[in-house]
Amino acid sequence: MAQIFDPLPSDAEAHVLCCYVNATSKIQVARISNIANWYFERVVFPGQRLVFEAMPQAQLEVHCGMMASAILADTILCDRLRIESELEADFGLEAADSGDAEPLAVAVAD
């Protein structure tokens, strides 16, 4: 997944695909500030899904508030927001990569 504005640091060894959903009725600001030499900040509107790549140890700070103020509402480890592991579990992708499982078959209704 390309992040044109804020690419991951060039020395990043591992990265995970993450998803955060703003389930509130307020605009939020999502920010990662614990990774050196990397800036990540996005506005997340109510009901919006934010899909991004980050390192597993990155912490997503969720800020919310009113005019000219922001309150840190939550800090979430990006490894907990990963969506790849759910897909792998649902479809057996890890086992297929190791050669231990049968290839996936897709049924198509006529």
Provide structural commentary.
With 110 residues, the protein is mainly beta. The chain has a domain at 16-83. 13% of the residues lie in helices and 32% in strands. The protein is built from 2 helices and 6 strands. The protein has helices at 84-91, 93-98; strands spanning 16-21, 28-32, 40-44, 49-54, 59-64, 71-77. The protein has a 4-stranded antiparallel β-sheet with strand order 3-2-5-6, with no helix packed on it. It has a two-stranded antiparallel sheet with strand order 1-4. Strand 5 (59-64) and strand 6 form a beta hairpin. The chain is globular and about 40 Å long. It starts with 15 loop residues before the first strand and ends in a 12-residue tail after the last helix. The model is unreliable at 93-110 (pLDDT under 50).
From the structure above, extract its key features.
disordered C terminus; 110 residues; mainly beta; 6 strands; two-stranded antiparallel sheet; 2 helices; single chain; four-stranded antiparallel β-sheet
Give the SSE layout:
Blueprint: E1 16-21, E2 28-32, E3 40-44, E4 49-54, E5 59-64, E6 71-77, H1 84-91, H2 93-98
Antiparallel strand pairs: 1-4, 2-3, 2-5, 5-6
